Amino acid sequence: MMRRLLAAAALAAASAAQAQSIAITMDDGPNAGSTPRMSAVERNQAILNALARHRVQAALFVTAGFGANTPEGFPLLKAWSDGGHAIANHTVSHPDLEKVSLAEYQRQVLECDRLISTLSGYQKWLRFTYLREGNTPEKIDGMRKFMREHGYRNGHVSVDTSDWRLNEKLVEVLTKDPKADVSAIRTAYLAHIRQRMLAYRELSQTLQGRDIAQVLLVHHNLINAMWLDDVLAEIEGMGWKIITPAEAFADPVYKLDPVRKVAGQSMLLSLGRILGLGLAPGGERLVDDGDFEIAELAKKGL
Ligand SMILES: [Zn+2]
Q1: What b-and-e string marks burial along 234-245, b requiring 16 or more CB atoms within 10 Å of the CB?
Q2: pLDDT (average), residues 10-17
Q3: How far apart are the CA of 28 and the centre of ligand 1, in A?
Q4: Do residues 235 and 198 touch, judged by C-beta distance below 8 A?
Q5: Cα-to-centroid distance, 10 and ligand 1 (Å)
Q6: So where are the chain's domains?
Q7: Residue 100 CA to ligand 1 centre (angstroms)
Q8: pLDDT at 145
Q9: Distance 56 CA to ligand 1 centre (A)
Q10: Cα 90 from Cα 88, distance rounded (Å)
Q11: How far is ligand 1, taken at its centre, from the CA of residue 33, in Å?
Q12: What is the distance in A from the centroid of ligand 1 to the CA of 64?
């Protein structure tokens, strides 16, 4: 009995020392558009409150044209910086590098930079929109040269989620009926985040033989205004340690900076594809845009 207790204590100590870590990053914000149930100010505050409650320092990847570049929207952005969060670049109008010119994409990065560089939380990190880093050598190499010259770090994502897809469903349901029971969407969202975290942890073990510092991507939207608090509680409940984005990006895995064979996905998935790694059982759900959860919700009439 004693030996078993000691073994359990040793295991607990070891897992605490090596707790899987993850940083929280949020894209496309602040979003000043209208949604059911909450105003833009309420959504922004609810997200910041959830982060504060869990003592989490996150990063906001700013899409300036979604509101921050207006006199009414700028205070939403400033509240993030004042709250101690990192403020980084996600362009002005969220263009797709595969559809606009290299020059136009770079112009938008610099325009966003002029707005966010006035804030104390400013970090020279760029997150590519749609996680697409260019579909021609000219664009891929052109952006890498531009980032080197301007001192940008790539704001990589390791745990990619489809929160945006579940958010679309949530908004659709609440637009029809603002009082609708959306608890099934909440349950599906939490299960989705959990599934992605575990699957990417497994992929990190396969690729690196260890638990890397993970970087979670979610968006500045209604679903997180309503349930980010629950997401953070879920992460903590899994025993994962929430670290700052700067701490996560210091993990050497992010220096690998692979050239993507397939655009728009977690850096880990890109590494796996470059190595010719097939998806593990259940891995198809890493690239399904939340189809699994959406199909489950449809069975429930949502
Ligand atoms: Zn985005």
Answers
A1: bbeeeebebbbb
A2: 50
A3: 5
A4: no
A5: 43
A6: 21-299
A7: 15
A8: 98
A9: 21
A10: 7
A11: 15
A12: 11
Confidence of residue 286 (pLDDT cuts 50, 70, 90): confident
Express each pLDDT in 18-36 by its tens digit. 689 999 999 999 999 999 9
CA–centroid distance, 14 to ligand 1, in Å, is 37
The HSE-up count of residue 207 (CA atoms within 13 Å, CB side) is: 26
pLDDT by residue (tens digit) across 42-56? 999 999 999 999 999
Q: Which residues neighbour ligand 1 (ion) by CB within 5 Å? A: 27-28, 129
- Report pLDDT digits (tens) over 117-145: 999 999 999 999 999 999 999 999 999 99
Distance in Å, CA 96 to ligand 1 centroid? 10
Q: Residue 90 Cα, ligand 1 centroid: separation in angstroms?
A: 7
- What's the pLDDT at 3? 54
Give, for 124, the enclosing helix (H) or strand (E). strand 122-126
CA distance 163 to 160: 9
Pick the CATH number of 21-299 from 3.40.50.720, 3.40.50.450, 3.20.20.370, 3.30.420.40: 3.20.20.370
